[in-house]
Amino acid sequence: METSNNPRRISRSKAILLVGLALLVVAGGAALISIRVLKTTTGRSHPSVQVPTNSTSAMFGFDLQHTHFNPFEHILSAINVSHLVSYWKVSTRSYILSSPTVANGVVYIGSNDGLLYALDAKTGKTLWLHVAKSDVGSSPAVANGILYVGSDDHTLYALNAATGATMWTYTTGNAIWSSPAVANGVVYVGSNDSNLYAFDAVTGKVLWTHATENFVSSSPAVVNGVVYVGSEDGQLYAFDARTGRTLWIAGAGLAIRVSSPAVVNGMVYIGSEDRNVYAFDARSGKLLWLAPTGGYIHSSPAVANGVVYIGSTDGKLHALDAQTGKPVWTAFTGASIHSSPTVANGVVYVGSQDYKLYAFDARTGTMLWSYTTGDAIDSSPTVANGVVYVGSWDGKVYAFHAQSSPDKDVAPHSPPRTRNGASSSGSIMGAFALGFL
To answer: Positive or negative CA dihedral for 368, 40, 142, 175?
Structure first.
């Protein structure tokens, strides 16, 4: 069943009821709320799967162009992807819309329990948690040791990626569903207060803002000194990355809701709620082609090897010729697709509202593998170093790899010892205003 509503289906109040709070601890004269960290239960180690220290994926869409294409993946392929099995699972306290970012051996992902999770990429062990005051549906970006993520509490957070300690925050006028992009020392992110923001990445100083006429839930791409972003006013915007000056505005029918631009070979691709995929000239904003689908588009396009891949609420993954927009193939899932596809080594991965994560042959559209989670998947998969990571509405973060061995499931345990400075940083403890309850 297709819907024009935003895919955030559950109320904030319900999500809050799912948040697990431990005891109120008084230490050093400060009242702190302790959040229980999740522990990996018994499971064998998996020495054949290596997740190196250096990451190849550090933001939503994989890169600043938002190609959703990982050209460095050489472990998983169309030949062995059918052998994917569960590597580990981590349970959060609410549903997950955020997409995982993998950097320096750590998986970062938000949950609508109001927490940002930092998980060991090999084991799923929780390294640290950071508390926001509301849902974290934005996907993290990591650059130069700092993690950036938005929240429904209207705030953009800049955190130490190694510890979760707060570097700086900025409160906008509404929820942040947009996922940040970091380029040349500047953080760009949209807000549902209808503005696109540019911040100094180190200090958090606002460098410029630019207003649109509706929510900016789309995530910006930054290419050749230009920031591209959609708005729910139905327009695709191109701004000068340094000054915020408008370079061009192009219409895309109805609202651009969550779908984010991909910029490849001088062309900008994006989906719209008018059911079409659009391609614009990146320099002028001239419409080059549009391709119809059978449903609203909340998915963001992936572009690889001359093909654009995008999901639609018609339940299909569409593969289109990047130059002409002509169909290459379509693949059916059992329900609407809000998840954005990821392409790696000849395989396209995407989640569906039918609860399944899919892997399709990028050339033919043949389904190679699927896995059924406990609820819909709006989170967009990330592939890094032979492992596929994704979140689900069932509140779990999943990791899959091509090795047949027992998985590691994560379950609650007693509160951890606090890190030095955790009480003031908001990592693991603190930062929960009582009004959040």
So the answer is: positive
Element (H, E) at 327: strand 327-332
Question: With contact defined as beta carbons under 8 Å apart, do 311 and 299 qualify?
Answer: yes
CATH 2.130.10.10 fits 32-42+53-436, yes or no: yes
The values of phi and psi at residue 288, to 5°, are -100, -40
CA dist 251 and 393 (Å) reads 32
Place of tokens 């705030």: 155
> Is the distance from CB of 255 to CB of 214 less than 8 angstroms?
yes
Query: In this structure, are residues 255 and 293 in contact, taking their beta carbons and an 8 Å threshold?
Result: no
Q: Is the Cβ–Cβ distance between 93 and 20 less than 8 Å? A: yes
> Which pLDDT value is given to residue 409?
62
Alpha-carbon span 10 to 96, nearest angstrom: 11
The model carries a pTM of: 0.84
Q: For residue range 278-298, list pLDDT tens digits in order.
A: 999 999 999 999 999 999 999
Question: 16: helix, coil or strand?
Answer: helix
What confidence tens digit (pLDDT) does each residue in 341-400 have?
999 999 999 999 999 999 999 999 999 999 999 999 999 999 999 999 999 999 999 999
User: Alpha carbon 387 to chain centroid distance?
Assistant: 16
Contacts of 119 (CB under 8 A, 6+ apart): 90, 106, 107, 108, 109, 125, 126, 127, 397
Band of the pLDDT at 424, cuts 50, 70, 90? very low
